[in-house]
Amino acid sequence: MPRCRLCFSDEAKLLWAVRGNPDYRVYLCTTCGARSLSPQPTESHLRELYSKHYYDAWGYREDSGSVRDMKLSTFRLRLELIKKYKPRGNVLDVGCATGFFLEAAREAGFAPFGVEFSDYSSKIAKGKFGEDSIFEGVLDDCPFPERQIDVVTMFDLLEHVRDPHSVMEKTRRLLKDDGIVVIMTPDTDSLTQRLMREKWVHYKIEHLYYFNRKSIRLLADRHGFRLVHLQPARKTLNLAYSYHQFQVYRHWLLTPVFSLVHAVLPDKALQANIKVIVGEMVAVLQKQPPAEEVKHP
């Protein structure tokens, strides 16, 4: 059994294999409640996954206005929350993709910066915000100066990283003393996970870790953050986007359902945006003074 990389416990049990990819298995840490994928995909496999075709699951094209509108709607919801803690400042979006959140952040008065692993999407983001504002690579290697960022955002990101501790350590160094982190990630305590179990749509080979409220709080505590807000995450979706998702990530029930819907409804209905909760949570973490830090082993 793999050792938990979050709390370092050796107490884990096998839950199930990832559907469609039986070589990859999901394990539950019985100490902290985090779940993890083992083995993890190789670096070359991840780069292949995050190529241009990764966005096939969005139905995304660079001229795709409906995807952009949908994503901006979700990110405006996140900005409503952020502005309760930080009305303005420098924002660093880790895993910024093609930069939709940063567009919304700039519109709301923030100075946008991003980190993106994919060369395809980072080039698009650089075209929007400039070469100096977007770093292509991983957060650990980014050159942005320390203690200059007001808000670090990680939307659908933390589940993808190989080492959550390393990400949080770097995040702490980048943030100003009163900075915040905003995380959106799948929640293994959600109703959708409890109902769908091993068929949960978030179990994918590019998702290396799965969190719940307990494990997010543990991660925050270990790195000198205080969890100040946690709730189910509302997202804006539409039927066209959902159709493309389930064409790429095949599901025994949802793929035929959305295929039928896509075949019979007009484009206007397919592209109508609705706000839904789909098994994710959003957390706000406040940076605490150094005396409150708790280092992990």
Q: What characterizes the major β-sheet?
A: 7 strands, mixed
Q: Rounded to an integer, what's the Rg over CA atoms? A: 19 Å
Gap from first CA to last CA: 20 Å
- Summarize the helix and strand pattern as letters: EEEHHEHEHEEHEHEHEHHHE
Task: Compute the number of strand runs.
Answer: 11
Which class of the largest domain in CATH terms?
Alpha Beta
How large a portion of the residues is in β-strands, by DSSP E?
25-35%
Shape: globular
The CATH superfamily of the largest domain is Vaccinia Virus protein VP39
Number of structural units classed as domains: 2
Average pLDDT level: 92
Helix content: 25-40%
What's the architecture of the largest domain, going by CATH? 3-Layer(aba) Sandwich
Count of discrete alpha- or pi-helical segments spanning 4 or more residues: 10
Per the CATH scheme, the topology name of the largest domain is Rossmann fold
Instruction: Please give the order of strands in the largest beta sheet.
Output: 6-5-4-7-8-11-10
**Structural class assignment:** alpha/beta
User: Segments where pLDDT lies below 50 for 5+ residues?
Assistant: none
